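Name: Mitochondrial carrier protein
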Amino acid sequence: MAHSEKRASPAREFAIASFAGALYGAAHTISGHPLDNLKTSLQLDPSFRGLSTAQAARQLYASHGVHGFTRGCVPPLLGSSFYRSIMISSYELSYTWFLRSTPKDSFWQQEVAGGYFPRPMVWASATFCSLARAVVEAPFEQAKVMRQTGQGWEVGGLYRGSGMQAARTTGLLLMIFGPIDIIRSKTDWMSSIWNQWGITTFVCGGAYAIVWPLETLKNAAQAALPRPGAGLAERVAFLGGVRGLYKGALPGIVGGGVRNGMGMLAMANAQKLATWLGLRDTR
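Structure predicted for Mitochondrial carrier protein:
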C-alpha cells in the first residue's frame, strides 16, 4: 500500500517508511480533525442526538466557536505521527520480507481468485501492522476522545477500550491494504500521485463505512460511556440501539477518506524523495 517504488531490503524499507509514515500521520490529523470532532460530538454528546450533520456543526460552533472543531488536536497530532510511523513501517517490513524471502509460487504470494482477492502476505502484513499500531495508538486515542467530550484523562485509563480499538483497526486496515495492493498489481491507476490520492480517499472512505459500528463502540468505551466497564448490550442501548452505532457516520467517513488521501499525498512524495536521494539501494 505504501508506495510503488522499487523495493530495497526489509530493513531499509522499514527505516524509510518510519519517516514517511510520520508525515502520513501528521497530514492525516491536520486535514481531518475538525470533522473528527464533529463526528465524536454526534456519537457521544446527548445534546447532539437527533441532529443532522449540518445542524450539529452549527451547534458545535455556537457552543464552542472554532475551538470546538480543534480541541483535542494535540494528542492525535503527536500520536498519529508516531503510530502511523509504526503502522507503515511495520507493514513495509513484513510485506517486503514476504516479497524478498518467500518464493513467488509460495502460499504467501499465491494469487487468489486470479489476483482479485488479497494475497495471504497482504493479510498477514496488515494484521501484523494493525496490532503494532493498536498498542501505541490506544493511549493517544483515549486521551483524544476524553478531551473531545470535555473530560479529563488519567494515566490509569489510557488503555481503556483497547480491545475494541484493536478489532476496529484490524478490520479497517485489512479493507484498506487489500484493495490497494490489488489495484497496484492489476492496474496502472496508482502511477500518478493524484491518482493515489483519489484511490486512497475512496478506498479508505469505503472501509470506514463498513467498520463504522466498531468506531462508535470504540469511542464509547474509551470515553467510559455510559459507565466504566459497561457491557456491549448496555453500550449499544446507551447509544440508541443499532441505529445509534452509525451516529456521526457522514463526517467520520468523509473525514476518514479525505485525511487518508492527504496522508497518502505526503507519504508518496516522501517515498519518491527517498528514491531520488539514493536512500533505496535496490541492487
